[in-house]
Amino acid sequence: xxxxxxxxxxxxxxxxxxxxxxxxxxxxxxxxxxxxxxxxxxxxxxxxxxxxxxxxxxxxxxxxxxxxxxxxxxxxxxxxxxxxxxxxxxxxxxxxxxxxxxxxxxxxxxxxxxxxxxxxxxxxxxxxxxxxxxxxxxxxxxxxxxxxxxxxxxxxxxxxxxxxxxxxxxxxxxxxxxxxxxxxxxxxxxxxxxxxxxxxxxxxxxxxxxxxxxxxxxxxxxxxxxxxxxxxxxxxxxxxxxxxxxxxxxxxxxxxxxxxxxxxxxxxxxxxxxxxxxxxxxxxxxxxxxxxxxxxxxxxxxxxxxxxxxxxxxxxxxxxxxxxxxxxxxxxxxxxxxxxxxxxxxxxxxxxxxxxxxxxxxxxxxxxxx
Length: 370
Known about the structure:
By secondary structure, the protein is of the alpha/beta class. Helix content is 43%, strand content 17%. The radius of gyration is 28 Å and the shape is elongated. It folds into three domains: 10-41 and 177-272, Rossmann fold; 48-169, 3-Layer(aba) Sandwich (Rossmann fold), CATH 3.40.50.10090; 276-366, Arc Repressor Mutant, subunit A (Orthogonal Bundle), CATH 1.10.10. Strands 2-1-9-10 form a four-stranded parallel β-sheet, with helices on both faces. A four-stranded parallel β-sheet has the order 5-4-6-7, sandwiched between helices. The longest helix is centred in the C-terminal third of the chain and has 15 residues, at 258-272. The chain has helices spanning 19-28, 48-60, 71-84, 87-95, 104-112, 126-134, 153-161, 181-191, 203-215, 219-228, 237-241, 258-272, 303-313, 322-328, 337-351, and strands at residues 10-13, 32-35, 39-40, 65-68, 98-101, 142-146, 165-169, 175-176, 197-200, 231-234, 276-280, 283-288, 291-294, 297-299, 356-359, 363-366. α2 (48-60) crosses α3 (71-84), α3 (71-84) crosses α4 (87-95) and α3 packs parallel to α5. The two termini are 28 Å apart.
């Protein structure tokens, strides 16, 4: 018996970074995975002349507030500064500022270079960092914002309207995948409902997928599929927010982690699959297609006990006579009530003895919760 709660489900993965880890998590749980990278993210490919110019601009004047948005962006920036011989100057310069961090990864990167944040939102959302700043008097303050793959020019403009002088540092830019064919294939799979869910670990991946869907003429079908049949699973609220402009509902876990996103799919996919889910003798019994899962673990049944289970599930909790169960057995099964008893015994061996109850002189029933 294997613990495969995603058995029978086909899931699209759009990640470029850490894709192997995510695919392994899904496949270990029984899912069939379609990998179609939406982005090509290589933080080492940065526009060094532009970043050097931005770094010198930061160093030219005092910084009142520094906003760190991603760990990988900070590491890339400070790594470049080290190559230029400017790392000590940069960390000392930023160390004199009030430092705000978007989330734990940027906090970790800051501390690695001897910097400490004064505040970070519990939500890990950049919008909450902006809300924190908007609630203050920013007149005359110089704010430096480290960008996270997407331009934050609109956020910078909003802060400037509040009186701040804002400089953004673009460490790297997120670009589309070098080979778009896998994404085109996934878009067709989504439009045709050939996948049950698609995962997203970065907001730019959603923009890239929608752009690709537009170029193939499938954008409306993709939006419709996500609205009705295909789950859009995001790693966190920042990524999920990118779907709002398309009117696409999405799910994301409380903690923005890959494992948490996969765990959420273990619950959401079976519950939305239109299968049968019952509380039987204190266990969760789920039928999805021909797959039978008990407490998330797949149960292999031979044809006779599977036929008995199907008959007992027609009206869960209702007694089914031995004669009716005999009629439900596959053709070729020995035509006697002993065959029914053997099938029930095998079903109990697979599900647990308490899952199927004997009702004396009447037949059998599933021990469903009242």
